Recover the amino acids of this structure.
């Protein structure tokens, strides 16, 4: 109950532009965010990969920010990701990138957004890397999946995120399967109405498990990639148990987690032979993203408050 209220509160705060302009300037907020973000620059993000790579943990990068409202802004984000890919290659890091369509101008010019995605997919492919597309709130799902279908037709090294809290996702999986897609399944991070999303943890978890089992099973029939984007170790265990019972090896899917969250489990899973990938977020525009992370785990709020104290 309290967790549910806190989740709602932080998702509401995430939407406040007024707070978004002010809170990040407070020193304690900058201290609190360090736990989930190694820094604001590309170099900070790539630096964090070194320690992970020696443990066999691969990395995925995203520059924080959303909803670009002008073509020049979208172009700048595209150029930034090209630079990031070049830096990944130079650093010999086994890294991939994950982008938000609205950051590449989906709200401004859909054709130009697709052009940016194609250009980034080609650059990623040329260096043996991968382009992932994040999923934003439910009003973007149709357009994001259309973009992905068009992109995937010419660029196989591309994947898209699907959210298990959405009632429609089972149908979206069915629609995408013929493409032999790469899918990152997550629970979903936005505040969605009951009409489109399951609201209880029980329902979301049950849908996550059922979709994950379908995806892992299908990955034996076609050359797909399946990522479980979750820190829910119980769910990962349940998917692994289903896979083992069907004779599917544990490296048939990837476990994808956020930098700084359940780090011990990330290492334990990698050691146990699971394929683990860690998403490293960086950039100045972390306010909304951080509020969504606080919404996911009230204990993070206590951590943030502790940064206020001088000891
Ligand atoms: C790699 C990756 C990519 C993602 N991409 C997207 C996307 O494109 N679109 C989208 O809507 N969402 C995305 N998400 C976020 C996702 O939708 C969930 O909001 C988030 O992962 C929390 O849900 P959970 O599956 O970890 O389960 P939960 O049930 O929220 O948590 C499971 C356990 O993990 C712990 N935990 C969860 N989050 C945190 C945290 N921040 N700090 C500390 N402990 C935590 C919880 O305390 C709990 O014990 C992504 C998540 C990951 C890991």
């Amino acid at each position: 109950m309290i967790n549910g209220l806190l989740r709602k509160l932080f998702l509401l705060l995430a939407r406040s532009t007024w707070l978004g302009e002010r809170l990040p300037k407070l020193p304690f907020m900058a201290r609190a965010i360090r736990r989930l973000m190694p820094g604001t620059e590309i170099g900070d993000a790539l630096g964090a990969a070194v320690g992970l790579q020696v443990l066999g943990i691969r990395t995925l990068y995203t520059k924080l920010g959303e909803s670009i409202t002008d073509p020049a802004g979208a172009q700048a984000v595209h150029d930034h990701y090209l630079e990031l890919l070049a830096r990944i290659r130079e650093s010999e890091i086994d890294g991939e990138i994950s982008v938000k369509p609205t950051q590449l101008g989906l709200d401004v010019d859909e054709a130009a957004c697709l052009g940016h995605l194609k250009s980034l997919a080609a650059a990623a492919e040329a260096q043996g890397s991968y382009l992932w597309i994040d999923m934003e709130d439910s009003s973007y799902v149709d357009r994001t999946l259309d973009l992905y279908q068009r992109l995937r037709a010419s660029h196989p090294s591309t994947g898209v995120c699907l959210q298990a809290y959405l009632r429609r996702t089972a149908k979206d999986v069915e629609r995408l399967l013929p493409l032999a897609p790469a899918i990152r399944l997550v629970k979903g991070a936005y505040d969605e109405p009951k009409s489109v999303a399951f609201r209880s943890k029980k329902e979301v978890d049950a849908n996550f498990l059922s979709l994950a089992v379908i995806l892992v099973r299908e990955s034996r029939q076609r050359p797909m990639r399946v990522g479980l984007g979750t820190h829910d170790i119980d769910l990962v265990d349940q998917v692994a148990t289903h896979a083992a019972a069907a004779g599917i090896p544990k490296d048939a899917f990837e476990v994808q987690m956020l930098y700084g969250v359940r780090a011990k489990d990330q290492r334990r899973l990698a050691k146990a032979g699971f394929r683990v990938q860690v998403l490293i977020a960086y950039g100045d525009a972390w306010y909304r993203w951080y509020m969504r992370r606080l919404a996911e785990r009230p204990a993070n709020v206590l951590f943030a408050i502790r940064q206020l104290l001088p000891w």
About this structure: Residues 134-135, 161, 163, 184, 186-190, 229-232, 256-258, 261, 279, 293, 296-297, 300 surround flavin-adenine dinucleotide (CB under 6 Å). The first strand starts at residue 58 and ends at 63. Residues 49 and 93 are 7 Å apart (CA to CA).
